[in-house]
């Protein structure tokens, strides 16, 4: 049918045809599946139009440009998190659609075509990993880590901005795939030969390849930056063993990014060579070997799991310690456990393809290595429990997430041990049991953690506490929704239901699928509650300001600045002499000292080149997907030109004069003097202005 | 001027050593004295030595305190590269063997 | 602890560095990390080359396609250029005259271009002989690995032109100095990769 539509202007538009627009497809073939596709495309377009309209109406284009060209690590961090939340919304809606389809499609085709269903699980996975989890954790690290180590910015502010714009470009490409053409049906791991030219000649796998490539290059750059910042920019006295736990997990995550992203880049690049130039890496003929791809992909894929989970471990460490009013128990063991996890994560990748056919001996080695990772993880859980022991635990939203994490994550860990045993893996491989397992690891081990971090540091970033009631409602929905949606999948998987199934022929599965579907709807409510929480918090912002900067009686240096912190973070670089410098400092009256004299501070200027690299990256990717070679060539040349131009720029920093620094600091100190110190019993009330009562 | 002489000498030493090791590797292939397997081991061994020489003389990675961070970085990278490459070769050769 | 010191990590600007720059240490270290990340990419391509070595699919074999004499010539060119880029850095450190630095860098550039020309000639010969990447998995792996190194060398050459322009425009300010240091690290790194290519690709093809 598609051949009836000859490409229009092939030189300009490549292989684009009218048929690639979902509206045209829905017009010609108005069934539920196509109409949902067209609806999703309309949502993207309407969202875009509304954004443009609002920006114009409120004359905020200048603000937008100021933000997207900024090299300030705090703004970059916030933009990362914004990307993550938008992409989270899309991927959750896709998950709900899939659950509805499976609940409806028992002995029935359901309302989605199998092709559309395959696109949904491919985009859901790709987005959740590359454009929700990665930007979310990178954003939180970007915002918090420099403040925690007492630095004024990241080591490479410009590269930081490039990484953001590339990640953003990848995310936009994912959104574009909803409107123009269709996405891959090959899952988030994109296994050839199915995603090769022979079986998927359409644009789908190309969208996947280039979106993931943009994201992975961005993450590699981000990782280099984070690692270098922690190695080289710590404040005087901040030895490695005095760093907050979150910095340790950020460091290990960044090292994993540096070494685990290249295998992904190689895998996608070689797949692209196969598809574009007819190479034979993963084809069925002329010596190609698709097992090479599985090996490469999981060389990345397994460390990636720990890239995702380690920052959350760090957030839990901060949260549990702060809201138990106790110093973190077993700091050294937590550091060692984090490093052990980071190194071990490079030794277990084969457990993702136990069934590929290598000998039992090899599987055994990797099975044992996999189970070994349970040991340092267990150490961490015990450390958090001991931190709470005999502490004054306050059940704030971040703390609730931490508690839900500890229980849920341990259950997921147990099912992981089951899957790590090769003979059992032969039974469970490719069933919903596996799907249940990794959601059981990643939802508590990543999403709860980042939502805890979001709630915990939101007052730091915006000077306003988030609404507590809606936070609790969202929390309850996330936890109840998770258990309802995923516990049934263990049963279904153990009964033999394959993953990625768009139509079910076993009537006994019905009750379990209904429960899972209800769970998905509860998760949708959780997402809605987060939106409501944000809206309510913005409305009530004046009642909940914490400008003084320390709403939770915090322990590490990020709480020792105003909320939001000034652009230069610290007027005077702090000197660190302990593990909880701010907590101890404010009790010895050492902090909050007004200085008589402030120096001028140099901060990086905004840059257009970093943004243009992201835009050009997006252009190159789009051109390559649609075979618009002129666009791809121009865009790649644009990237080279931007790099060279930037190296000629000498005027990279601007100086904030001493008088301005002094004025900012004095304003903050006046607010500190005016604020009433509060006890922990009233920290969720408007009386909390961000100054903690320290006289015990 | 003394420092410059010393540093120039380091580069020249590195160059001469690298040259000798390269020529030795070529000689091992051109005038073979051992079996294919042994010769391959010799070539790879000479290559490895040359990499160490270049890291020491050209890239100035040493045990000195000033380059400790870099040394750790290079050693860690070596560990990861060894894991990835040897793992890949073991697994893929094992698969091929079992399919043949 | 990372007190700003005169010691540049990685490349020996030593205690004799005349113009210390607080940013230099993290700037160079960050570039080291990038190189190690790049090294992982090459390592994986080597691993794939290893697994594809036998997959010639009845097409051209390594022994037939790889010429030892031109491999030797390429090796000598790249090794010499590694020495001259080192002398470029020494000239920047001690002479600080544009002429000395540009002369050594120019020599490195010429050696790099000569290497590229020779490699381009080799690849063209292979194409003419029917050894092109779409012929077999072995040739695919070769054409992913060796030309990627070539592209790196080309990028290094372009980088030298850019640095020459910047030395002309700005002299030896802090950013020029740090970028020349990074360039030298990059170039030495490419020579290290070439040792691996020479051993694994070219010499291995001619085992007795």
UniProtKB/TrEMBL annotation, chain A:
A Gene Ontology BP annotation from the UniProt entry: respiratory electron transport chain
GO MF annotation terms: cytochrome bo3 ubiquinol oxidase activity; cytochrome-c oxidase activity; heme binding; metal ion binding
Domain Cytochrome oxidase subunit I profile: 67-577
Keyword terms, alphabetized: Cell membrane, Copper, Electron transport, Heme, Iron, Membrane, Metal-binding, Respiratory chain, Transmembrane, Transmembrane helix, Transport
Membrane topology field: Multi-pass membrane protein
GO CC annotation: plasma membrane
Transmembrane parts of this sequence: 35-56, 77-100, 120-144, 156-180, 207-233, 245-273, 293-316, 328-354, 360-379, 400-421, 441-458, 470-492, 512-536, 603-622, 628-645
Pfam family, one: COX1
Localization annotation: Cell membrane
Keyword Magnesium found: no
Lineage top rank: taxon: Bacteria
Classification via InterPro entries: Cyt_c_oxase-like_su1_dom (IPR023616), Cyt_c_oxase-like_su1_sf (IPR036927), Cyt_C_Oxase_1 (IPR000883), Cyt_c_Oxase_su1_BS (IPR023615)
PANTHER family (alphabetical): CYTOCHROME BO(3) UBIQUINOL OXIDASE SUBUNIT 1 (PTHR10422:SF35), CYTOCHROME C OXIDASE SUBUNIT 1 (PTHR10422)
Family, similarity comment: Belongs to the heme-copper respiratory oxidase family.
Official protein name in the record: Cytochrome o ubiquinol oxidase subunit 1
From TrEMBL, chain B:
Pfam families: COX4_pro (PF03626)
Keyword Transmembrane helix: yes
Compartmental location: Cell membrane
One Gene Ontology term of the molecular function aspect: cytochrome bo3 ubiquinol oxidase activity
Transmembrane domains' residue ranges: 12-33, 39-59, 71-95
Record's GO cellular component terms: cytochrome o ubiquinol oxidase complex; plasma membrane
Membrane topology label: Multi-pass membrane protein
Coiled coil regions in record: none
UniProt-listed GO biological process terms: aerobic electron transport chain; electron transport coupled proton transport
Keywords: Cell membrane, Membrane, Transmembrane, Transmembrane helix
Family that this chain belongs to: Belongs to the cytochrome c oxidase bacterial subunit 4 family.
Assembly with partners or alone: Heterooctamer of two A chains, two B chains, two C chains and two D chains.
The protein's role, per its UniProt record: Cytochrome bo(3) ubiquinol terminal oxidase is the component of the aerobic respiratory chain of E.coli that predominates when cells are grown at high aeration. Has proton pump activity across the membrane in addition to electron transfer, pumping 2 protons/electron.
Protein name: Cytochrome bo(3) ubiquinol oxidase subunit 4
Organism (species): Sphingomonas palmae
TrEMBL record, chain C:
Cellular-component GO terms for this entry: plasma membrane
Location within or outside the cell: Cell membrane
Pfam name, any one: COX3
Main location: membrane
GO BP annotations, alphabetical order: aerobic electron transport chain
Ranges where the Heme-copper oxidase subunit III family profile domain occurs: 1-206
Annotated transmembrane regions: 29-55, 75-94, 101-118, 138-164, 185-205
Assembly description: Heterooctamer of two A chains, two B chains, two C chains and two D chains.
Described purpose of this protein according to its UniProt entry: Cytochrome bo(3) ubiquinol terminal oxidase is the component of the aerobic respiratory chain of E.coli that predominates when cells are grown at high aeration. Has proton pump activity across the membrane in addition to electron transfer, pumping 2 protons/electron.
Entries under PANTHER family matching the protein: CYTOCHROME BO(3) UBIQUINOL OXIDASE SUBUNIT 3 (PTHR11403:SF2), CYTOCHROME C OXIDASE SUBUNIT III (PTHR11403)
Family statement: Belongs to the cytochrome c oxidase subunit 3 family.
Name this polypeptide is given: Cytochrome bo(3) ubiquinol oxidase subunit 3
Organism: Sphingomonas palmae
């Amino acid at each position: 049918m598609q051949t009836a539509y000859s490409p229009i202007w092939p030189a300009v538009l490549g292989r684009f045809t009218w048929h690639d627009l979902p509206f045209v497809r829905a017009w010609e073939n108005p069934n539920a599946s196509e109409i949902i596709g067209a609806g999703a495309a309309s949502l993207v377009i309407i969202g875009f139009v509304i954004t443009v309209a609002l920006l114009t109406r409120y004359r905020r284009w200048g603000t937008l440009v100021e933000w997207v060209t900024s090299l300030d690590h705090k703004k970059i961090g916030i933009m990362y998190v914004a990307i993550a939340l938008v992409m989270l919304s899309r991927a959750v809606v896709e998950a709900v659609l899939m659950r509805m389809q499976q609940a409806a499609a028992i002995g029935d085709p359901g309302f989605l075509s199998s092709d559309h269903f395959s696109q949904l699980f491919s985009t859901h996975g790709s987005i959740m990993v590359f454009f929700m989890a990665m930007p979310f954790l990178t954003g939180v690290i970007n915002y918090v880590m420099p403040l925690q180590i007492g630095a004024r910015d990241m080591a490479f502010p410009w590269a930081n901005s490039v990484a953001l714009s590339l990640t953003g470009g990848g995310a936009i490409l994912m959104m574009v795939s909803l409107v123009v053409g269709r996405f891959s049906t090959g899952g988030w791991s994109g296994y050839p030969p199915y995603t090769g030219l022979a079986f998927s000649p359409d644009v789908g796998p190309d969208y996947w390849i280039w979106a993931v490539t943009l994201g992975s290059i961005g993450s590699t750059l981000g990782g280099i930056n984070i690692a270098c910042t922690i190695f080289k920019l710590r404040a005087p006295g901040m030895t490695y063993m005095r760093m907050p736990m979150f910095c340790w997990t950020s460091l290990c995550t960044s090292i994993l990014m540096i070494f685990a992203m290249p295998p992904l880049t190689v895998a996608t690049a070689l797949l692209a060579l196969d598809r574009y130039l007819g190479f034979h890496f993963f084809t069925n003929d002329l010596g190609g070997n698709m097992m090479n791809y599985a090996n490469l992909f999981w060389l990345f894929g397994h460390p990636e799991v720990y890239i995702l989970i380690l920052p959350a471990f760090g957030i839990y460490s901060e949260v549990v310690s702060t809201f138990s009013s106790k110093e973190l128990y077993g700091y050294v063991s937590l550091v060692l456990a984090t490093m052990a996890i980071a190194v071990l994560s490079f030794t277990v990748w084969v457990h993702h393809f136990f069934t590929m056919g290598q000998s039992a001996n090899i599987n055994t080695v990797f099975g044992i290595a996999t189970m070994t990772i349970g040991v340092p993880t267990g150490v961490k859980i015990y450390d958090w429990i001991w931190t709470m022991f005999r502490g004054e635990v306050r059940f704030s939203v971040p703390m609730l997430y931490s508690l839900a994490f500890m229980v849920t994550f341990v259950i997921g860990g147990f099912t992981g041990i089951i899957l790590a045993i090769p003979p059992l893996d032969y039974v469970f491989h490719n069933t919903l049991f596996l799907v249940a397992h990794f959601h059981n690891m990643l939802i508590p081990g990543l999403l709860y953690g980042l939502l805890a971090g979001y709630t915990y540091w939101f007052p730091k970033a915006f000077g306003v506490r988030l609404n507590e009631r809606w936070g609790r409602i969202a929390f309850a929905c996330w936890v109840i929704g998770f258990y309802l949606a995923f516990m049934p999948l263990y049963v279904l998987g153990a009964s033999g239901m394959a993953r990625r199934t768009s139509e079910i022929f076993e009537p006994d599965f019905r009750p379990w699928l209904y429960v899972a579907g209800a769970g998905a709807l509860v998760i949708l409510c959780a997402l809605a509650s987060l939106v409501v929480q944000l809206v309510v918090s913005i409305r009530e912002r004046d009642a909940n300001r914490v400008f003084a900067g320390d709403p939770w009686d915090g322990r590490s240096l990020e709480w020792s600045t105003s909320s939001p912190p000034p652009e230069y973070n610290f007027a005077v670089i702090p000197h660190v002499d302990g593990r909880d410098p701010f907590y101890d400092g404010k009790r010895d009256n050492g902090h909050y000292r007004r200085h008589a004299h402030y120096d001028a501070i140099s901060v990086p200027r905004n840059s257009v080149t970093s943004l243009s690299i992201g835009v050009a990256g997006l252009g190159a990717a789009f051109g390559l997907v649609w075979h618009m070679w002129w666009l791809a060539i121009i865009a790649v040349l644009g990237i080279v030109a931007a790099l060279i131009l930037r190296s000629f720029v000498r005027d990279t920093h601007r100086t904030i004069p001493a008088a301005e620094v002094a004025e900012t600091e004095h304003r903050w100190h006046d607010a500190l003097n005016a604020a009433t110190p509060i006890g922990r019993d009233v920290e969720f009330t408007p009386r909390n202005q961000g100054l903690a009562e320290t006289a015990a | 001027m003394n420092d410059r002489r010393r540093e120039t000498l380091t580069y020249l030493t590195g160059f001469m050593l690298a040259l000798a090791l390269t020529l030795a590797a070529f000689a091992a292939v051109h005038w073979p004295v051992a079996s294919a397997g042994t010769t391959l081991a010799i070539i790879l061994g000479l290559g490895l030595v040359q990499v160490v020489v270049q890291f020491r003389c050209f890239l100035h990675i040493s045990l000195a305190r000033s380059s400790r961070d870099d040394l750790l970085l290079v050693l860690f990278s070596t560990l990861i590269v060894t894991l990835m490459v040897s793992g890949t070769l073991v697994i893929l050769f094992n698969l091929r063997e079992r399919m043949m | 602890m990372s007190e700003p010191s005169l010691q540049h990590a990685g490349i020996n600007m030593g205690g004799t560095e005349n113009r210390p720059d607080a940013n230099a240490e993290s700037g160079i270290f960050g570039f080291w990390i990038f190189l190690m990340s790049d090294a992982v990419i090459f390592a994986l391509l080597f691993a794939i080359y290893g697994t594809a070595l036998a997959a010639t699919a009845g097409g051209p074999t390594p022994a037939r396609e790889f010429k030892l004499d031109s491999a030797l010539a390429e090796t000598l060119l790249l090794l010499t250029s590694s020495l001259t880029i080192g002398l470029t850095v020494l000239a920047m450190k001690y002479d600080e005259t544009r002429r000395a630095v540009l002369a050594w860098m120019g020599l490195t550039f010429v050696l790099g271009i000569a290497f590229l020309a020779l490699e381009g000639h080799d690849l063209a010969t292979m194409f003419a002989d029917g050894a092109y990447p779409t012929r077999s998995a072995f040739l695919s792996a070769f054409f992913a690995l060796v030309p990627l190194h070539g592209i790196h060398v080309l990028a290094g050459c372009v980088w030298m032109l850019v640095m020459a322009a910047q030395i002309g425009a700005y002299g030896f300010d802090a950013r020029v100095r740090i970028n020349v240091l990074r360039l030298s690290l990059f170039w030495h790194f490419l020579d290290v990769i070439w040792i691996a290519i020479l051993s694994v690709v070219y010499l291995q093809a001619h085992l007795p």
